[in-house]
Amino acid sequence: MSFFIDEFQADLEALPNILQKKYALMRDLDKSLQEIVRQNEQRCEQEIEDMKRGVKAGNITPDTSLIRFSDEALDEQKHSIRIADEKVALAIQAYDLVDSHIQQLDQYLKKSGEELRRERENTAATAPSQISDGTTKSGRSESGRRGRKKSRVGTAAASAAATEVAATAANPTGMELDLPVDPNEPTYCLCNQVSYGEMVACDNPDCKIEWFHFGCVDLKEQPKGKWYCPDCAALRNRRKGR
User: Fold this and answer.
1) Which residues, other chains included, contact 188 with Cβ-Cβ below 8 Å and sequence gap of 6+?
2) Residue 137: which residues within 8 A CB-CB, separation 6 or more?
3) 229 is in an annotated binding site
């Protein structure tokens, strides 16, 4: 786990510089695009005025199917579209880069939560046996009564530890929410958490869960066409195999 943290931290430190370069290139493309658009607007306005004068003078046939902009104006428009496409591609690259780091962090938090849950389960399992070892030596004297009282306290402590383990299992990432959560708010997804961020719906009308967080089902964007959650997809495959 420490190796993963070191590797993730190294990648994260390089992220700002990479994003800064992409944003700088996007700004340069935007300046070029604005300049080309401005020139094209002026050219087209001038050509429209020339067309109007030609129609009035009878030099141009007033047939809209024959009237068109010059090749220079059309080339400028095509060039503007290419620059706009480059800007969109850079924006998508920047988004995917940040999203990949978020996915890595989610995986780390999930693994950390699982390790913490196992440690607490082991602690809860060993606590009663340790308390029993400390109380079996007491007899029927006054110390024996103190031993039975200590045993009850130990059982309460073990129950509290078990409750804490259950809370951790409900939140496998081990993250504590700063915002108050309404206990009556419905929960969704495989993680059994409330609705947050981007979510996707299962297309099986009989799905018991219905809604899922992108990160929990390894999605980065809304799927095209119908999408089924892992449980419903497995059920459909079993039915097809029969």
Assistant:
1) 194, 195, 199, 209, 210, 211, 212, 213
2) 147
3) yes
pTM equals 0.42
Spell out the alpha helix ranges (H) of the chain: 2-57, 71-135, 142-170, 230-241
What's the full length of the chain, in residues? 242
Residue with tokens 């459909």: 236
Sign of the Cα torsion 86, 87, 92, 94 reads positive
- Residue 232 counted as an annotated binding residue: yes
44 carries a ligand binding annotation: no
- 79 annotated as belonging to a binding site for a ligand: no
- Determine the average pLDDT of the residues in 11-15: 81
Provide the pLDDT for residue 164. Answer: 46
Cα separation, 221 vs 26, in Å, equals: 23
Burial class (CB in 10 A: 0-12, 13-18, 19+), 26: middle
For Cα atoms 229, 232, 237, give the angle at the middle one, nearest 5 degrees: 120
216 appears as a binding residue in the annotation: yes
